[in-house]
Amino acid sequence: MIDERLNLIEDDDPKLPGDFGLAFAVQQHLDKAASELPSDLASWIKLRFDECLDMGPWDTLWNELAPQYRLEAAKRCDEIFKFEILKKRFASEKTAAGRYTLAEAARLLASSGERLAVVVQMLCDAAERSELPVYSWGERVRFVQTAGDSPSWRSKEAYWDDLNHWLTKHQPRIAYSFSPPKKTALAPSKSHQLRNRRHALDHVIEVAVSRATDPTNYLSVWPELVRLAEMGEPPAPLLGYVDAEGIKYQVDAGIKFFTKNALRKRMAA
């Protein structure tokens, strides 16, 4: 059965926190065929199914899955997508901090004329002897090997200055020096762009964007905005949420409503 395809997707990836995403968006449409879905939702499902599941045409998969498995597939897409976001974030932080995996560092050292296999082993041995401080992926606390532990040293990370210090002390004849990380100007984030457009809801939209599973998709941001509006004491200037009207908020001239379509246009600008 097609439902059994989901059993091929193992739960090896970390479970990451988050509230609303594709799974939330499809909840009211689980009994619909692919051709009956709203066009914007169908586009989102296609994007995520293609990226995260890779199990054939999205519409064929959707139509052949039972409703409960459609929801499970959407949840799995959310988990994988959030995991990929974290990987990119850690990779960016690693580069900005001047951190290299030992495999990456070895390739750079080999560019100076050393044999790659020899350099890889040399760095791994140095890390195992605690001569070279190393760190696990995404962590800032130095890695310490425990009894019975057999880590993959090649994937451990070292800072540029620690690498240089180790080279100076233990391999002074290797003609290579790791450069300090360059400070680069960050491109404006979606939240910065929203803030620069001055609107009464700038702050709460930024909060919703930061909490959304997919911060670039208004379908993911909108439920977060609604949740903020429906809080017992919503943040100013929110006053609540009205089904037929949208997000209710206060301005100097009186009361206004902010709709899902308005959010779509605002995020697309």
Lay out the secondary structure.
Elements: H1 22-26, H2 39-53, H3 58-64, H4 67-97, E1 99-101, H5 102-110, H6 116-128, E2 157-159, H7 160-170, H8 190-196, H9 202-211, H10 218-229, E3 238-242, E4 246-251, E5 254-258, H11 260-268
Antiparallel strand pairs: 1-2, 3-4, 4-5
Helix pairs in contact: 2-4, 5-6, 8-9, 9-10
Characterization of the model:
This protein is 48% helix and 8% strand. The protein contains eleven helices and five strands; from the N terminus they run ααααβααβααααβββα. It has 269 residues and is mainly alpha-helical. The strands form two sheets. The protein has a three-stranded antiparallel sheet. The chain has a two-stranded antiparallel ribbon with strand order 1-2. Residues 1-19 and 185-197 have low confidence and may be disordered. Strand 3 (238-242) and strand 4 (246-251) form a beta hairpin.
Instruction: Encode the helix/strand succession as letters.
Output: HHHHEHHEHHHHEEEH
Q: Name the structural class.
A: mainly alpha
Quaternary organization: single chain
Fraction of residues in helix: 40-55%
Please give the radius of gyration in angstroms.
25 Å
Spatial order of the strands in the main sheet?
A: 3-4-5
Segments where pLDDT lies below 50 for 5+ residues? 1-19, 185-197
Number of helices: 11
Q: Could you give the count of β-strands?
A: 5
Strand content: 5-15%
Note the overall shape. elongated
Integer tally of domains: 3
Cα(first) to Cα(last) distance is: 44 Å
Largest sheet: 3 strands, antiparallel
Mean pLDDT across the residues is 82
